[in-house]
Amino acid sequence: MHLNIDFINTFLGYHYTFFVVLFAFLLGILFSYVWFLGKNKKDNFDKKKLESYVKGINYIIEDDTDKAIEEFTETAKLDPDLIDIYVSIGNLFRKKGEINRALIIHKSLMVRPHLNKQTKLKLYINIGVDYRKAGLYDRAKEYFKNALSIDPKNQQAKKLLYEVYEDSKDWENALVWYKRFSKGDEHRLAHILTEIGKEKLKENDLSQAKKSFEKALKIYDDCIDARLKLGDVFMGMGDIDKAYKQWEQVCKINPGLTDVALSKINDIEALKKVIKNLLVLFPDNRYILFFCANHLFNINEKKKSLSLYKKLIKIGVKPESVFKKFIQIERDRMPDFILEFIDEEQDRYTRYTCTNCGYSTHNHFFLCPKCRQWDKVKVEIL
Fold this sequence. Notes:
The chain has helices spanning about 1-60, 65-80, 85-95, 100-110, 115-135, 135-150, 155-165, 170-180, 185-200, 205-220, 225-235, 240-255, 260, 270-280, 285-300, 300-315, 320-330, 335-340; strands at about 350-355, 360, 375-380. It is mainly alpha-helical. Among the domains are: about 255-345, Serine Threonine Protein Phosphatase 5, Tetratricopeptide repeat (Alpha Horseshoe); about 350-380.
């Protein structure tokens, strides 16, 4: 009987140990299964976020702003902590022209707790861009300065702040900003001084305007805008010969802007003299030939202008406007059906294109309104 009791106790002991091990094993499997389900759910969640984000990027590439906003909004719903997604949504609203919605989104992010410096920097810059787009330049300046208070060396914030000074035509402060952060870019400095000179010219302060333009040319001798305006100053002072010399010099420095300079000369005899000088110096330059021909045509020097149009055709310059002018001069010899194709009112014979970004217009510019680069204009005869 004693052996049987020992046997039973031993048997129960073994089974107790077995059940403990089995229970622990099953519990481990259960925890593993729960962990696996959680991980799988998280993976699916992350996959869904990624898919939504990638779709949004694709819509941006396809320039479908509405669908991009829709997808990014879905991504943001999946994870409200994705600040970069909200920033992107705000930027897309700004691109659509819905500035108020962009500002609401970007500014709402600023009140979130525990934002790090880089996130604050990004938000300040984007809110500044929103205000700039809305034309609220003072507010834009405020936010760009806030960005620079976080990172004084941030090039993007520096560039944007300077451009807001340009947008608001606050050239005195643009000069201050240049001296603080952009020393060495003499090309830009010359244009800032030129713009300050223009303000003085509007105020009829010819003396200060002259100083600004001359200072600009001392820094950058090929600053066409400064030279054109210096001619205006001399004209205002009654020194007509010096004015004409400045405008003639513009044609020599940049023949593509000959039309801009010659259009300032109102005296016919003086215009003829300048044209003669230019044709001697540049007998085969297409811009000099074309614009001089046009101005001779306008002062009724048809025979002289005709010889220049013929020369243009001979050297291979054959835009539509040259043929139209040619036909207008020779209209008495032309059949009626050809004259029907001539629009005598046409006055847009040139196109100005920014070589940096491709912006194109019929109106001349020194500062590209799209990419904000100075003197990147290419002149095309149409």
